[in-house]
Design goal:
This protein has 233 residues and is of the alpha+beta class. Helix content is 28%, strand content 18%.
């Protein structure tokens, strides 16, 4: 039975669907890398910007990823994330606008938000500093406000597994479609060539007569050299 002809536009819809699926996979995979994988590999910590104190550089919803740094190496102009009080999980991300020292010789940082007109009221001590800004991604920090850190880790693991499964499903579908589109060979098989019977050798005569060879050297071994026939008038 002949196969049904493909519906008009089916190939276009298939291509568009794959392009859209690939785009979703690329965006989701990139977000997972920026939020979870890269910070974890680099020993960094991601945070979400919740206020507009760092506009326009870091708007609300921006993902900021900070890496630990020695306070002695921090200079003015760098952006740091620090705790409001040592041991308090509440953090602020502001720019360093000045350096100082305590009476005991401890290094301190004077910070201020880019959108603020005055500096932060208290200098930041080394024990409060969580890290220096590594990179930032607009709007991606909104996911940092979803649930607790444990819930975000669980969610990121589920998303990673879902993306891997979806990628495998796409690959399997592509392989299946290629097999379906592969044309069957229309060339009939070549019949086998029958074996050629052996040609009897001139010396294998069964009438008992000797075979005459024009040249003695050309006579095969085991044959009798005969006499050339005489010509009669």
């Amino acid at each position: 039975m002949d196969a049904a002809p493909p519906r008009p536009g089916a190939g276009v819809r298939r291509v568009l669907g794959r392009v859209l699926a690939g785009a979703v996979l690329l965006v989701a995979g990139g977000a997972l890398l920026l939020v979870v994988v890269i910070p974890r590999l680099g020993g960094a910590t991601p945070y979400g910007v919740a206020t507009g104190s760092m506009r326009p550089a870091l708007d609300v919803g921006t993902l900021v990823v900070t890496r630990p740094a020695d306070v002695e190496t921090i200079t003015t102009g760098q952006v740091v994330t620090y705790q409001l009080r040592s041991g308090d999980p509440t953090v602020v991300t502001h720019r360093v606008v000045g350096l100082g020292t305590t009476a005991a010789g401890e290094r301190t940082l004077l910070t201020r938000g880019d959108a603020n007109e005055v500096s932060d009221p208290q200098p930041v001590r080394a024990v409060q500093v969580r890290g220096v800004l590594w990179y930032a991604v607009p709007q991606l920090g909104r996911v940092m406000g979803l649930g607790t850190p444990d819930q975000r880790r669980t969610l990121s693991t589920v998303v990673a597994l879902a993306l891997l499964g979806y990628a495998g499903w796409l690959v399997a579908g592509e392989v299946r479609d290629r097999r379906r589109r592969r044309p069957e060979s229309s060339v009939p098989p070549v019949p086998p060539v029958p074996p050629v019977p052996p040609v009897p050798h001139a010396s294998d005569r069964s009438d008992g007569l000797a075979t005459w060879w024009p040249d003695e050297g050309s006579a095969p071994a085991g044959t009798t050299r005969g006499r050339a026939p005489e010509e009669r008038p």
